[in-house]
Amino acid sequence: MPTYHKPEAKTIQELKDIAHKLRIDSINATQASKSGHPTSCASIAEIMSVLFFNTMRYKLSAPRDASSDRFILSKGHAAPILYAAWAEAGLFPVEDLMNLRKIDSDLEGHPTPRLNFIDVGTGSLGQGVAVACGMAYVGKNIDKADYRTYVLVGDGESAEGSIWESLHFAGYYKLNNLCVIFDVNRLGQSEATSLQHQMEVYRKRLDAFGFNAIVVDGHDVEELCKAFFEAASTTDRPTAIIAKTYKGKHFPNIEDLENWHGKPLGDAAADVVAHLQKLIRNPGPITVAPPSPQKENAPKVSIKNIQLATPPAYQLGEQVATRLAYGTALAKIAMNNDRVIALDGDTKNSTYSDKLRKAFPERFIECFIAEQNLVGVAIGAACRDRTVAFVSTFATFFTRAFDQIRMGAISQTNVNFVGSHCGVSIGEDGPSQMGLEDIAMFRAIPGSTVFYPADAVSTERAVEMAANTAGVCFIRTSRPNTAVIYDNNEKFEIGKCKVVKQSANDSVLLIGAGITLYEALKAAEELEKSGIHCRVIDPFTVKPLDKEGIIQNGAQCGGRVVVVEDHYKQGGLGEAVLSALAEQRNFVVKHLGVDKLPRSGPPTVLVDMFGISARSVAAAVQEIIKM
Description:
Blueprint: H1 9-33, H2 38-42, H3 45-55, E1 70-73, H4 79-89, H5 128-142, E2 149-154, H6 161-172, E3 178-184, H7 199-208, E4 212-217, H8 221-233, E5 239-244, H9 269-279, E6 319-321, H10 322-336, E7 340-344, H11 348-351, H12 354-359, E8 364-366, H13 371-382, E9 388-394, H14 402-410, E10 416-420, H15 438-443, E11 449-451, H16 456-467, E12 473-476, E13 481-483, E14 498-501, E15 508-512, H17 515-529, E16 534-538, E17 541-543, H18 547-556, E18 560-568, H19 573-580, E19 588-594, H20 603-609, H21 614-624
Parallel strand pairs: 1-2, 2-3, 3-5, 4-5, 7-8, 7-9, 9-10, 10-12, 11-12, 15-16, 15-18, 18-19
Antiparallel strand pairs: 6-13, 11-17, 14-16
């Protein structure tokens, strides 16, 4: 290990002074906004001072520079001191901090990437470590660069299980370029944390998770300098700096007291600021400069215009599961662009993401059965446009990571999610494995795109399009084999449906997706024998839905529409269609979907039992033409 050289006394004193300036900035900003968390800022003032003015290497001219160190404030409610650190470093005027939480200011109550120095939104606690793990993994194994990742975690949020999923991941992959800082200030929002200041308990736990665990006085600048040096010098594992701190540190009559969480200091502010000003030895301009990256060693990359290396190659009528086509397409786009990566939660041989793993093992990240961490790692891996991340697991398992996905949208992430084993059509595995809420969940995400391809050709094109689409993308894939119905050269567009069966005599429009498209086609063929002609539409994307196409085709069918989906009725394809037609006159819609708790059974039996088979579609058509 390199030899540690203690900073000069002048530097130590200036770092102490900066910590107090950051406290004052946090008080002033929260006073101006009449809201915020100044006591939570005070506990990390020395940590922020040492990180931003002694340890982290970054460019003020390019806060998201690819070669710079990364910092994630997992305890996002301490945003004022993060903003203060960047302001005091010179990124923007300190006076701008007085705009905290104003409607026309991007200095929001919790950090978001509306600010050019923020990578991800935080504040929904327990998620920052996963994001940091994704950044660190990419830095170590894909960029192979020397930038480091720091994440600051509150002791209260360390009760979240997602934190420990991420710590396990970091320890398993020996992410020696990751430093997790625990702000152990003893107090939560409404009472003391469960462990309070039991520092040895924290140390033992983190040691057991494979970390170089260092306990420090979080208000001792010199101890912090030494700990961060040791972290940077540790080559065989990640480091956890467990800082014993006090909420409201150096706030007279407030420090370490309950009932001050999330409150500006009010009438006490002036006295506290006066006290802090007396602690500052050098009130003049800051003279220590933030360290800069030593070298630009993160490679220049391009993640634009990603294409399938070879076009789809299927025979019409060939039976191929869309989950298998996903794996095939994933390997093809990975062949085209070396920044395409795949992540999975120990389902890779079912989702077929293992096709990328077999072709490019260095670009596959196994996250094991820890879906919250899986999603967070992907969000971190995609930051600063370093990778194009595809995350796969059973569709239903994404529900436990909904908060991470929601925060991904706030973080302006471009991660692609692929959920297989959707609906009752998976069969005997039963309801715990059936994705029946996933479309509703992903439709609710702001700016999301929801693909629901029916065959192998459309699936490959969905993967190609998702790789080039901004925002959260979700591709819903199915377990059963389905017939290839599209020519290999068929062109697809986001938000444009495909008419797969039509005639001049159509009297009912049938809309199905995935396996139910085929049930609709079967029903149409049967009904045709009795002289009832139906048009059949494949929406391709559920969001955005082709509203114009549905209205136009529906009107040509007399305004009679039947929608059938392998999903709960709430929030899925049917309700998307109903929303599209809500302001249209002279339409009637029959909606078939799973409307009660399913059970185990053969796929075809279940599809019929829950009213989404061709038989049920045909019955709905018979009913609607009589209305």
